[in-house]
Design brief:
Its cofactor is Zn(2+). The chain is of the alpha/beta class. It is built from six helices and 14 strands. The longest helix is centred in the N-terminal third of the chain and has 13 residues.
Length: about 210
C-alpha cells in the first residue's frame, strides 16, 4: 500500500490517498478547498491511473471535510464517518464563513464506520479503531500488514490533538491514545492530520503529553 500525503488549506491539513498495485484508492480527509488544491488532488489521481473507491473521514472538523463534496461528486463515492461525529459535520456550515470558507459545500454521510470494521479496497485492508477525545466520533485507520496508521488529529509528532473545541475532552483523548494507539507495535508509522509522520515507539518515548 502506498501512502500519499497532500497538504491543503490554511490549516495545513494532511489529505491522504491510499492505493495499492490494483490502482484501487481511498481518499481520507480531503481538505482541498481552493480550485488549485482540487486540481492537484485530481491530477495525482489521474496521473497514477487510480480508481477512487471510498471516501473516509477520521473526524469532521472543517479542515478535514472541505473537499468532501468535490471528491464525492467527481468520483461518485459516498462519505463514510463514525455516527458520533455527524453532529460535528452538521455544524460546519454554521461557522465555515467565519473561517473564510464561504463556498463550503456540505456533504452528509451515506454510511457509518464503527470500531472493528474492515475497510477493503484492492488487495488492502484497513481496520477501523475508535479513538475519541479530539472529536466525539474520531476514528483512525490501521493497516496491520504494513504497520501504518492514518491517525487524524489524535496523535502528532511529540504532540496530541487539541481538546478545547466543542465536544472535545482531554481525558478521553489521553485514554484513546494509551489504550488504542499505544497498544500497537512500536514500529507502526502514524500519519497524522497535520505535520510529519511519527512512530508509536517514538511517541511512547518522547511525547511530553504522555510521559
Amino acid at each position: 500500500m502506498k501512502v500519499t500525503c497532500l497538504t491543503f488549506n490554511p490549516f495545513q491539513e494532511n489529505t491522504y490517498l491510499l492505493h495499492d498495485e490494483t490502482k484501487a484508492c481511498v481518499v481520507i480527509d480531503p481538505g482541498c478547498y481552493e480550485a488549485h488544491e482540487r486540481e492537484e488532488l485530481k491530477q495525482y489521481i489521474t496521473d497514477n491511473g487510480l480508481k477512487v473507491e471510498r471516501l473516509l473521514n477520521t473526524h469532521c472538523h472543517i479542515d478535514h471535510v472541505l473537499g468532501n463534496k468535490f471528491v464525492a461528486d467527481t468520483y461518485k463515492v459516498g462519505l463514510e464517518i463514525h455516527a458520533e461525529d455527524e453532529q460535528v459535520l452538521r455544524s460546519v456550515p454554521t461557522y465555515a464563513p467565519n473561517y473564510g470558507f464561504a463556498m463550503y459545500a456540505e456533504l452528509l454521510p451515506t454510511s457509518y464506520l464503527k470500531e472493528g470494521d474492515t475497510i477493503k479496497f484492492g488487495n488492502t485492508e484497513l481496520k477501523v479503531i475508535f479513538a475519541p477525545g479530539h472529536a466525539p466520533g474520531h476514528v483512525v485507520f490501521y493497516n496491520e500488514a504494513e504497520k501504518i496508521v492514518i491517525g487524524g488529529d489524535v496523535l502528532f509528532r511529540q504532540s496530541i490533538g487539541r481538546t478545547d473545541l466543542p465536544l472535545g475532552d482531554h481525558n478521553t483523548l489521553i485514554q484513546s491514545i494509551k489504550t488504542k494507539l499505544f497498544t500497537l507495535p512500536d514500529e507502526v508509522t502514524v500519519y497524522p492530520g497535520h505535520g510529519p509522520e511519527t512512530t508509536i515507539g517514538h511517541e511512547k518515548k518522547y511525547n511530553p503529553f504522555l510521559n
